[in-house]
């Protein structure tokens, strides 16, 4: 069964890159442009994994992760956030909010696919 | 189509980013100490570098990196922001814009970087991060316990254990001592710890990589296994990785461990030009031939010592041949990965939503086979995407997921590789296949066809069911070319289809092209090899039957009429037939034909030698091989012979000869 992944990022080009990388690896991907949209989509259908940026308008990634983890239905769903090397602080915050793992930007598609395979196990 | 080009999207984004950086720099020029502005500029540069590197703007990424590093120092207070620095970065920013557009002279960049260096002169630099050398051998003993909320936060401990197993031989024992009594147990929390003994040449980074996401909060004790030297115990102490001091390691450690892993890989494998492999294969082929001569000599004589040496060499030659086969094997992943782009483009061109799922990429096939499989697979995948899959709207109407799936999988089964291409599209329209075959005169009107016969009509030359020819497929040079290519690889192709649910095309390909199992036969005074894979059975043709069937060239085989070819006549050997002639029944797909030979000699390991350019036009033979006694045997091209046997035309020709 194809794992479905939600990608939340305000940058269309990053979203596109993520989508191409993940669909290329056989996953099906849906997109959301900010935390509010991401939250709505995650609540509407169950994803196997969520990849989210942290800095976004309307609702940032941290808040979205916290909101998601409040819901029993979202327990255990891997959430990967995108961060930059300089953001050690953000990383611990995101982890505290309930994120599963992270990916350091810039990343090459293979890294993303590897992370997806790591947390999804397929 | 540009909507799908990340590079184009990046160009637009980069323009906006540069605008922001410019604004920030201009403002910064007025208030040099404003940390918010410094941070803003840094972030802009950082994103530009990062995204640039992702979308292939390497020059931009490299150049921006220098500016970013400079600003990082400012940000960290190592260097004060100066008017000179701001000015340099401003001019650098113009250069970046040119880099995004792709028309920047290198000299400009170097000049700017030199000025940047000058502007930074006051500061001192240090580049410390070097990973510890991970020259650990033998293995590790580790204990780990995940934070209680790890499972709720999406970490699956089973997958971590699987990853450890992938590293090497793992002995895993669960520690259950911390599981609370049932009333206090929260089902979503993880209380189990694991003792793991990992055996193998594994670096510390490999293990830490497994836990990279949970490292900060987990308990991980790690110590090398093995020789109880004082050195080791000392190291073990320093190895006990506890909770917090690692906080920064994963980030800094990740790239260096990746580098270490790739370095390790480079050490284990050697890249060899393909021609050298071919050369080596040739030599091995010669060796196998020479060896079979030797063993024949040894068996003809009485010398027991010679015989035992010859058997020894036979064993070694066979092993060498098998090893050589494996060396030439390449995982199909390299082939499959080329289709990602194809499917992506097809999805664009057709406006359909298509997902490509690949399975069994690690299946290995001879490299020549891989190269020759590419074109047929392109064609089949195109067909699936173009004809098979429906548009999103049609799919939704049919109650299917909007995204169509093309599944490409490979696995090995007894000397063959099975490659299947499965789509979940509309399936093959049998009515249309029938109508088309009717129109093209491929079948008689009203002719009764079995399911598989009907479907295999799509492999007929000049057959194309697409109601209208699109620019992707349906050029009429379709599946028949695919079929021929697959058959030239001594493979076969099958199609199955359920209307409304999709089609499956299965390719069976032999693992290697260089050596085959053959059936050695004698016709007249010559020896010939029939590829064993095509042989169905051998029966005897008695003289009476031979006479009875004369003029018909058909035998009744279990109530089916099978045409046969008298190879003696076909090759015009001019010899008398043996009293007990044999018919070797060969089959390609559903078509079979009998080949009348004088004698069946037996199994033969056939090293295929291609025919010279002068003889390449001869269709009946696909190659030649050298026998143990040094004679040459021609290898029969079964596909051609079957086609010949099935066509009435040649039958008449044979009669004329006979």
TrEMBL record, chain A:
Q: Could you tell me which residue ranges the Response regulatory domain spans?
A: 4-120
Q: Keyword set for this entry?
A: Phosphoprotein
Checking InterPro entries in the record gives: Bact_response_regulator (IPR050595), CheY-like_superfamily (IPR011006), Sig_transdc_resp-reg_receiver (IPR001789)
Gene Ontology biological process terms, A to Z:
phosphorelay signal transduction system
Q: Which residues carry this modification: 4-aspartylphosphate?
A: 53
CDD domains reported for this sequence: REC_CheY4-like
The record's annotation in SMART domains points to: REC (SM00448)
Q: What is this protein called?
A: Response regulator
Automatic annotation (TrEMBL), chain B:
Classification via InterPro entries: Bact_Chemotaxis_CheA (IPR051315), CheA-like_dim (IPR004105), CheA-like_homodim_sf (IPR037006), CheW-like_dom_sf (IPR036061), CheW-lke_dom (IPR002545), HATPase_C_sf (IPR036890), HATPase_dom (IPR003594), His_kinase_dom (IPR005467)
Biased region (Acidic residues) positions are 224-235
List, alphabetically, the SUPFAM superfamilies matched.
Answer: ATPase domain of HSP90 chaperone/DNA topoisomerase II/histidine kinase (SSF55874), CheW-like (SSF50341), Histidine-containing phosphotransfer domain, HPT domain (SSF47226), Homodimeric domain of signal transducing histidine kinase (SSF47384)
Q: Using the record's annotation, list all stretches that form the CheW-like domain.
A: 515-647
SMART domains (alphabetical): CheW (SM00260), H-kinase_dim (SM01231), HATPase_c (SM00387), HPT (SM00073)
EC number in record: 2.7.13.3
Repressor is among the record's keywords = no
Q: Name one GO molecular function term.
A: phosphorelay sensor kinase activity
| Reactions catalysed according to its record | ATP + protein L-histidine = ADP + protein N-phospho-L-histidine
Its keywords, alphabetically, are: ATP-binding, Chemotaxis, Kinase, Nucleotide-binding, Phosphoprotein, Transferase, Two-component regulatory system
Where is each R3H domain found?
Answer: 303-373
Annotated ranges, domain Histidine kinase: 265-513
Gene3D superfamilies from the xrefs? Histidine kinase CheA-like, homodimeric domain, Histidine kinase-like ATPase, C-terminal domain, HPT domain, SH3 Domains
Q: Which domain of life is it from?
A: Bacteria
Phosphohistidine modification sites?
A: 46
- Name it: Chemotaxis protein CheA
- The scientific name of the source species is Aurantiacibacter xanthus
């Amino acid at each position: 069964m194809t794992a479905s992944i939600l990608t939340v990022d305000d940058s269309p080009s990053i979203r596109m890159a993520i989508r191409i990388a993940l669909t290329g690896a056989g996953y099906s991907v849906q997109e959301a442009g900010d935390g509010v949209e991401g939250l709505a989509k995650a609540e509407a259908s169950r994803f196997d994994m969520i990849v989210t940026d942290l800095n976004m308008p309307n609702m940032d990634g941290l808040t979205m992760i916290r909101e998601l983890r409040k819901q029993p239905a979202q327990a255990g769903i891997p959430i990967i956030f995108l961060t930059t090397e300089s953001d050690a602080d953000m990383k611990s915050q995101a982890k505290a909010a309930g994120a599963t793992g992270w990916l350091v930007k810039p990343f090459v598609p293979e890294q993303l696919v590897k992370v997806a395979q790591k947390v999804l196990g397929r | 189509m540009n909507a799908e080009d990340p590079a184009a999207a990046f160009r637009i984004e980069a323009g906006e980013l540069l605008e922001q950086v410019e604004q920030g720099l201009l403002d910064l020029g007025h208030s040099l100490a404003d940390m918010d502005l410094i941070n803003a500029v840094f972030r802009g540069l950082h994103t530009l570098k990062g995204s640039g590197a992702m979308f292939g703007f390497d020059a931009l990424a490299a150049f921006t990196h220098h500016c970013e590093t400079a600003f990082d120092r400012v940000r960290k207070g190592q260097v004060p922001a100066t008017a000179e620095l701001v000015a340099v970065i401003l001019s650098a920013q113009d250069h970046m814009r040119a880099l995004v557009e792709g028309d920047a002279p290198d000299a400009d960049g170097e000049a700017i970087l030199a000025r940047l260096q000058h502007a930074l002169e006051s500061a001192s630099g240090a580049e410390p991060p070097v990973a510890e050398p991970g020259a650990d051998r033998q293995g590790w003993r580790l204990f780990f316990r995940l934070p209680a909320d790890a499972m709720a936060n999406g970490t699956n401990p089973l997958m971590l254990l699987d990853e450890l197993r992938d590293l090497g031989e793992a002995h895993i024992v669960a520690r259950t001592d911390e599981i609370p009594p049932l009333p206090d147990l929260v089902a979503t929390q993880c209380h189990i710890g694991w003792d793991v003994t990992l055996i193998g040449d594994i670096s510390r980074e490999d293990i830490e990589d497994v836990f990279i996401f949970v490292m900060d909060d987990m308990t991980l004790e790690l110590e090398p296994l093995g020789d109880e030297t004082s050195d080791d115990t000392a190291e073990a102490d320093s190895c006990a990785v506890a909770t917090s001091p690692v906080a920064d390691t994963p980030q800094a450690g990740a790239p260096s461990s990746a580098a270490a892993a790739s370095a390790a890989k480079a050490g284990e494998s050697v890249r060899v030009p393909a021609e050298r492999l071919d050369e080596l294969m040739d030599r091995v082929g010669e060796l196998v031939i020479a060896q079979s001569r030797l063993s024949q000599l040894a068996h003809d004589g009485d010398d027991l010592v010679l015989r035992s040496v010859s058997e020894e060499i036979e064993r070694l030659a066979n092993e060498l041949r098998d090893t050589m086969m494996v060396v030439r094997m390449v995982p199909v992943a390299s082939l499959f990965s080329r289709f990602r782009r194809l499917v992506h483009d097809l999805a664009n061109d057709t406006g359909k939503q298509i997902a490509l799922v690949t399975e069994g990429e690690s299946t290995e096939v001879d490299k020549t086979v891989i190269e020759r499989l590419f074109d047929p697979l392109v064609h089949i995948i195109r067909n699936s995407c173009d004809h098979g899959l429906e548009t999103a709207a049609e799919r939704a109407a049919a109650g299917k997921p909007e995204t169509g799936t093309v599944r490409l999988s490979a696995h090995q089964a007894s000397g063959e590789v099975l490659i299947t291409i499965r789509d979940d599209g509309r399936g093959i329209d049998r009515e249309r296949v029938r109508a088309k075959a009717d129109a093209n005169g491929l079948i008689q009107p009203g002719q009764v066809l079995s399911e598989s016969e009907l479907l295999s009509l799509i492999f007929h030359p000049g057959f194309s069911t697409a109601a209208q020819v699109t620019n992707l497929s349906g050029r009429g040079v379709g599946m028949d070319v695919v079929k021929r290519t697959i058959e030239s690889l001594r493979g076969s192709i099958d199609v199955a289809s359920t209307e409304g649910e999709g089609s499956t095309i299965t390719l069976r390909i032999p693992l290697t092209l260089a050596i085959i199992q053959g059936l050695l036969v004698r016709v007249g005074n010559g020896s010939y090899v029939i590829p064993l894979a095509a042989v169905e059975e051998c029966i005897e043709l008695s003289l009476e039957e031979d006479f009875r069937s004369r003029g018909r060239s058909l035998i009744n085989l279990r109530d089916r009429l099978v045409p046969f070819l008298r190879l003696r006549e076909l090759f015009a050997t001019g010899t008398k037939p043996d009293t007990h002639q044999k018919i070797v029944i060969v089959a390609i797909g559903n078509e079979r034909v009998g080949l009348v030979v004088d004698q069946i000699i037996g199994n033969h390991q056939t090293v295929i030698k291609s025919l010279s350019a002068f003889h390449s036009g001869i269709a009946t033979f696909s190659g030649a091989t050298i026998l143990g006694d040094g004679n040459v045997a021609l290898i029969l091209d079964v596909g051609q012979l079957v086609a010949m046997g099935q066509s009435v035309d040649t039958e008449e020709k044979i009669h004329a000869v006979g």
